[in-house]
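Action item from last week, closing it out:
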Amino acid sequence: MADLMFIESPAKMKSISRYLAGTDIELFATYGHIREIKKSWFGRGEGMFNPQWDDSKRKVELDNKKVPIIEAIKKKASKASKIYLATDPDREGEAISWHIYSILNGEDKRKCSRAVFNEITEKAIKASLQNTREIDQAIINSYLARVLLDRLIGYKLSDYTRKKVGGASAGRVQSIALKFLVDREDEIKSFKKESWFVLKVELKNGLTLSTIQLNPEILSQVKLFKEQKRGIVWFQTKEDAEKLAKTLELNYRLVKIGEARQETIN
């Protein structure tokens, strides 16, 4: 029996088959998704965690006759020795591979492995066959979450915007992107300009030192900025920084070298 590779687009079959020349691998295109979650899925208690599916009614050519795509996939799989689920490398592609796997019987499922390539080149395709993996459940969960968001928000919001402003769509991407823009605009409008000052000393050897601590006497005479970041003293006004600068001597001497601090990185 020959091996079988499932892909999404029939337009890619010619290029992929050229790079698979010399191998015993047959290609089969699904023409995109082969099943969709039923529209009645959400809103029926625990049904949202155990979705029900509507299989595609699309028909394809098989053995000189038109048959439902689901039937064709099962027949092809039953005759294959190995099955490569090579749908697109994105979330929807992972979902299509998962759907193909889900409709197969136990024996045919054991033949399956996920092959992923990001470009249609001989090197990428052959590398994917040597480095197959299992279907990524985390990506499938992301796909299911996307569908849920569409049903809960996207479809309803799209219907609303269509009625109110004539918008064609306001799904999960557009709606959250709009929220980001609104939040950012609110931040810009509410922004209040604030200034702070730091005191740095440059030594003759070019080394620059920053003020990180003030003695109590000086601390009582200056005003500090409300936030102190990166262990550096921030002065509230330029005059406060200059007040400290005037107290500094021109000559310095080394008093102490502290112990090296060790940190464990997990």
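Closing note: The beta strands are 3-7, 25-29, 35-37, 53-55, 59-62, 65-68, 83-85, 112-114, 200-202, 208-210.
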